[in-house]
Amino acid sequence: MGSPSSIDSGVQDRIRQQEVIAELGQRALETNDLDQLMHDVSVAVAETLDNEYCKVLERLPGGDEVFLRQGVGWRDGLVGSATVPTDLDSQAGYTLISEEPVIVDDLREEERFSGPELLTNHDVVSGISVVIGSVEEPWGVLGTHATDRREFTTHEANFVQSAANILAAAIERASKEDQLREREAQLSVATDAASIGLWLWDIRENVFTADEFLAESYGMEPELVTTGAPIEAFFDPVPGEDKDEIWEQLDRALETGVFSAEYRVENADGDLMWMVSRGEVEYDASGDPVRMHGAVTDITERKQREQQLREREERYRDLFTSMSEGYCVIERVDTPPEEPIDFRYIEANPAFEEHTGLTGIVGKTIREVVPGERQEWFETYDTVVETGEPVRFERELVTRGLVLECYAFPVGGETDAQVGVLFTDVTERVERERRLEELIERLETSNERLEQFAYAASHDLQEPLRMVSSYLQLIERRYEDDLDEDGEEFLAYAVDGADRMREMIDGLLEYSRVETEGAPLEPVDLNAVLEDVLDDLQLRFEESGGEVTTESLPTVEGDSGQLRQVFQNLLDNAIEYSGDGPPRIRVSAERRSETDPEWEISVSDDGVGIDPEYSDQIFDVFQSYHEGEGYNGTGIGLAICERIIERHGGEIRVTSEPGEGSTFTFTLPAASDSD
Question: Sorting pLDDT into bands at 50, 70 and 90, what band is 665?
Fold first, then answer.
């Protein structure tokens, strides 16, 4: 048993703690400043228990953290900014799920949880923490801490809990006051927005009184209305037919006890306003009516909206009926989960009946009207209901030989399960597309056959041509001494013609194989391709004294072998048609932007040039612009270039003037980043 002095000390501590709690409770009743109260509680708890620290931690939305809303002893800048996790390894998190105060004698030896950085960084050793609010719905944590090892008593823990209870009560009261102020503000706004006025009719004395709202609405003097006048005076602003309705309802209300009427009144500006008035009758002990009290509301805007809605509905009905497109509204039917989805027709216009051949369908379900309807259509309509997003699809009516383009969209409705479906007859368009697809297929087949024919024809011509060439050479060897000058000339023409025929056949073979024997497209470095071509043409450049200037070329998606042929043909032509001077050729590349999918490659020369009139013709097979002018060529090289570039998805063109040189430009797809 403790000594008298220690007992007296403990009693004095509890008395002091009770005094502090009483003082804090009084302060909580006198202030609306929660943060000041939290600060005062923190100071009082720390001083009363002789601790260095006290904190009020507020639980943040989500519950994963609490933040230091108020406190004493902590380093500057932490109050109002520091956060503490609420996991079970944290003292704060452990406290939030504890029914009793959490007492820590020595945080260094604690096994239930570890101290967060907020405590360890301040050398906290011992302390008490309690829940503010309930464990079921905690607002936060109140904690007090010391830097030395202490064994806190149950009375001290209860003292901290009492302080937390004061905070919880103040927080709850502040929350309710905020809710009350919000409700009052909402009520005020609602009352103003609803334009409500109050009235009272003393039936025995026939005195009708009301507030200023009714006086303003009726265009009457406020003093007359508020002091009272016979009820008949309030009927003056009411049109005759509406006045009769009010009297009829008043007579009925004296029997039923309930009054309700909608009518118009003319205000001071001469404008008609719609009002609705409702009231209840009070009776005396004998059952005789004594007074009627009620409220009047301005419903002019509502009536105007209703009128506008009726007008819109009338216009909609006219449009709905006259539409050339079929239109219907369907609504999802509530069916058990084990049964398939179904929709009921709500509306259908004449064009819908004309397109589908379905009549008398309103009120029936789709499965009743069209038993064989495909399940995917039901799923489509259901998707529109569930997502609120429109869907476009095509539907073929085989029995009627029609194809309809359908646009299904949500139209709301009372159940939010209604779908509008617009049907447009696209049969002609679909038929055109089908015919076009068939034409393209026939053209592809025809092109394939033409390629096969060109290959076979050119291949088969090789053998008789070899025979002609062989016999011409044989004649030249055997009868060279017997031929006169004309004979030698004729023989030379024949040999030259055979050689040209061979070149043309070889070119035709090459042209026919562009599509069939091309390699798959892959990233190709055009610098390497051009370098190989220049190596092959080195002798020709040396003989002609030509020069080639090249810029850095890109990597493209292509067939390296075919692109090599394009460069070879263009450079060979530039040398061939360079005119009297040595050829000067420049190869360059350009891309309009980094996102442009194509590169433009240009091969320019300063040769004899081409008349712009023939800029398209030169790409045709066996068309040579300079034929007969002393230049060699079969007229198929540029045709091969065009076909190769088209296979790559590009195009080739020429810009030229006679005597000004030529620039051949072709486009190629840029290699993708992944490549």
Answer: very high
* Sheet containing 547-550: order of strands: 547-550, 584-590, 598-605, 662-669, 652-656
**Which residue's structure tokens are 């994963």?**
64
* Closest by Cα among 270, 260, 274, 261 to 304: 274
The C-alpha atoms of residue 582 and residue 436 are separated, in whole angstroms, by 51
As a whole number of angstroms, the distance between CA 355 and CA 470 comes to 75
Residues listed for the chain:
675
Strand 272-283 with 391-397, pairing: unpaired
DSSP states along 361-372: -TTSBHHHH-TT
515: exposed, middle or buried (Cβ count in 10 Å: 0-12, 13-18, 19+)? middle
Exposed e or buried b per residue across 292-328, where buried means at least 16 C-beta atoms within 10 angstroms of its C-beta: bebbbbbbbeebeeeeeeeeeeeeeeeebeeeeebbb
Residue 588: Cβ within 10 Å count: 16
Band of residue 78 on the pLDDT scale cut at 50, 70, 90: very high
State how far the Cα of 326 lies from the Cα of 356, in Å rounded to an integer.
9
Q: State pTM to two decimals.
A: 0.37
Interstrand relation of 138-146 and 53-59 (parallel, antiparallel or unpaired): antiparallel
For residues 45 and 164, give the distance between their C-alpha atoms in angstroms, rounded to a whole number.
Answer: 10
Q: Three-state SS for 562?
A: helix
Record the tokens describing residue 547, joined without a space. 């020069």
> How much is the pLDDT for 374?
76
CA atoms 24, 30, 31, 36: torsion sign: negative
Q: Of the spans 211-225, 546-560, 584-598, which averages the highest pLDDT?
A: 546-560
| Sign, Cα dihedral of 509, 510, 513, 515 | negative
CB 671 within 8 Å of CB 526? no
Q: If you search the block for the tokens 């006219």, which residue do you land on?
A: 318
Q: How far apart are CA 638 and CA 624, in angstroms?
A: 9
Strand-pair partners of 300: none
Contacts 24+ apart (CB under 8 A), 59-65: 59/86, 59/96, 59/138, 59/139, 59/140, 59/141
List, for residues 214-272, the tens digit of each pLDDT value: 888 888 888 888 888 898 888 888 888 888 888 899 999 998 999 999 989 888 788 88
Are 353 and 359 within 8 A, CB to CB? Answer: yes
Closest of 266, 294, 295, 262 to residue 276, by C-alpha: 262
Cβ atoms within 10 A of the Cβ of 412, count?
A: 10
**Residue type for 307, please?**
Q
pLDDT band at 413 (very low <50, low <70, confident <90, very high): low
Q: What is 14-71 written as a DSSP string? A: HHHHHHHHHHHHHHHHH---HHHHHHHHHHHHHHHTT-SEEEEEEEPTTSSEEEEEEE
Q: Tokens 């009301």 appear where?
A: 210
Beta bridge partners of residue 153, listed in sequence order: none
Instruction: Please report the pLDDT score of residue 1 as a whole number.
Output: 46
Q: Judge residue 574's burial from the number of C-beta atoms within 10 Å of its C-beta, 0-12 exposed, 13-18 middle, 19 or more buried.
A: buried
